[in-house]
């Protein structure tokens, strides 16, 4: 046997002796026999083969030690998997508890439904369950470590304890943040309730003042006033629009709101919130939306003066025209061609609908005065539109919707005042 081989055998011999000597403190008085072991042979098997016959204590000790090592290895692998699982869950919880992004303002591709995010209660419950599971695993590991001394187990226990401490701090911080948000929402709700109560009281007083005027004026001689940019002040038309293959929409508007006058008119149907919309928001020009398709209108109306505007449209080639104060200002085509305006919808004045009858956004609300809204299911001629803008005796009223006080319900503090076109302009 060469000196190199003998050196390897002696090293293995010393390793086995030291290993068994280290474990002797767990086994009372036991006789240990140290022997050289070939380098390619299993240590425990060689120990058993070379043990003194009948020495059951040595055999059981070696097998117990081997089983302990395997169990600790399995425990370490399980706890490593737990750490990876915990890190993944924490990342998901943090992403779910973030602040929601700003609402989309692109009129051409509006978000009509919105995503439903996980609530703070679900996030906290998930974190709590994760912490409880980890604490239970840590207690099991501590019990196992007390019965089987292991440096690796103790190191893993410390690692998990530190990780749990960090998580508990994060959960406490998140709870405090949620409580602050709830407190802020509660204050905002109370403040909004006070504002709405005040507006309702003012609306009632205005309605009482209007009663005397209403008895002496025609039902179509009135204007709607939207003094504030809110998400709860609007008027609702009592009846829906029919199916239409052509249309004309005309009205009087007065506003000096900036940026953008907002949304004078919004018609939504099931499945399409932007079936018919007039909107001017931000620094964009006024837009006509039909079936969520967009045409930019060349209107200049936010100067604080009364203006008469009309838009016409037909399904054939999606042709449209825009008139301001009786004069044609622009035209175009390919606006929702061959798409009829659908029936069974809801017509709202003063707010833009992101869903049928709701989803109002204060930044898109109309601010100003609106009067004499009329809708036809045909394209009016240039002469007919000029008669409307100049208050001619030949001016027609809408055959789909005509401006009448009895045709509207008003909400949120919008008010009605006497108005006669062309007599009190500007």
From TrEMBL:
<dbReference type="InterPro" id="IPR001759">
    <property type="entry name" value="PTX_dom"/>
</dbReference>
<keyword id="KW-0325">Glycoprotein</keyword>
<dbReference type="Pfam" id="PF00354">
    <property type="entry name" value="Pentaxin"/>
</dbReference>
<dbReference type="InterPro" id="IPR030476">
    <property type="entry name" value="Pentaxin_CS"/>
</dbReference>
<protein>
    <recommendedName>
        <fullName>Pentraxin (PTX) domain-containing protein</fullName>
    </recommendedName>
</protein>
<feature type="domain" description="Pentraxin (PTX)">
    <location>
        <begin position="220"/>
        <end position="422"/>
    </location>
</feature>
<keyword id="KW-0106">Calcium</keyword>
<keyword id="KW-1015">Disulfide bond</keyword>
<keyword id="KW-0175">Coiled coil</keyword>
<feature type="region of interest" description="Disordered">
    <location>
        <begin position="89"/>
        <end position="120"/>
    </location>
</feature>
<dbReference type="GO" id="GO:0046872">
    <property type="term" value="F:metal ion binding"/>
</dbReference>
<dbReference type="InterPro" id="IPR013320">
    <property type="entry name" value="ConA-like_dom_sf"/>
</dbReference>
<dbReference type="InterPro" id="IPR051360">
    <property type="entry name" value="Neuronal_Pentraxin_Related"/>
</dbReference>
<keyword id="KW-0732">Signal</keyword>
<feature type="coiled-coil region">
    <location>
        <begin position="124"/>
        <end position="170"/>
    </location>
</feature>
<feature type="signal peptide">
    <location>
        <begin position="1"/>
        <end position="24"/>
    </location>
</feature>
<keyword id="KW-0479">Metal-binding</keyword>
